[in-house]
Write a sequence for this structure.
């Protein structure tokens, strides 16, 4: 049973438009969420994170929104650029004080930004 | 500061053999995690080591094992290889749980 789900395996967006990548989780003990980007033949690189005490975190063109009641988060990229084409992984972890302290990754969404 | 390094980058083995993969974390990072990436499955957590102790373990059979040395370098071993073990194996280091993880480039293992 996947605890972190990314239901869209792929997404295509025109350059300059907004990319919205979605992620759902089932474990209510998760309280820290991260997004990673992965190019072919490279390891994932950290993009942005959000703690459960917040509902939004912004870093340049990247914004992550968290809806705890819906157990849903999304990553917005505005404006999208061709260099953003990559696989995006959503990840979740629990507070170190609890037993749910593994980092669980979703299956990833492949984003293609079309010039 | 040097990033996470993994050796070897590519490996071809046959069924029944065993393999050892190596990971050198970023200097000062004491937590090392291992993941298996296969198409459509994302990154599956294998285990995490911190100060030479395995703190967390994923749902993989006992054929998958690991260890961490006093210098934080880590090795992962897979015995009695199966075709389904073909995957990209990623190592990540961090200062501790809940912190950003830094990934190495991975070892691409092919089992024939």
């Amino acid at each position: 049973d996947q605890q972190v789900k990314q239901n869209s395996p792929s997404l295509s967006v025109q350059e300059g438009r907004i990319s919205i990548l979605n992620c759902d989780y089932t474990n209510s003990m998760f309280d820290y969420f991260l997004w990673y980007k992965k190019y072919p033949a490279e390891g994932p690189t950290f993009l942005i994170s959000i703690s459960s005490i917040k509902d939004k975190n912004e870093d340049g063109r990247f914004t992550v929104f968290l809806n705890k009641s819906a157990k849903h988060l999304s990553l917005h990229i505005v404006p999208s650029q061709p260099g953003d084409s990559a696989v995006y992984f959503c990840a979740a972890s629990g507070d170190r004080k609890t037993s749910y302290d593994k980092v669980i990754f979703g299956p990833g969404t492949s984003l293609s930004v079309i010039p | 500061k040097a990033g996470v390094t993994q050796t070897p980058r590519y490996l071809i083995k046959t069924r029944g053999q065993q393999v050892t993969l190596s990971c050198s974390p970023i200097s000062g990072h004491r937590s090392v995690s291992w993941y298996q990436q296969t198409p459509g499955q994302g990154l599956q957590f294998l285990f995490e080591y911190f100060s030479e102790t395995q703190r967390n373990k994923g749902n993989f059979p006992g054929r998958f094992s690991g260890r961490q040395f006093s210098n934080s370098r880590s090795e992962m071993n897979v015995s009695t290889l199966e075709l389904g073990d073909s995957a990209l194996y990623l190592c990540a280091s961090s200062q501790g749980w809940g912190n950003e993880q830094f990934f190495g480039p991975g070892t691409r293992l092919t089992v024939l």
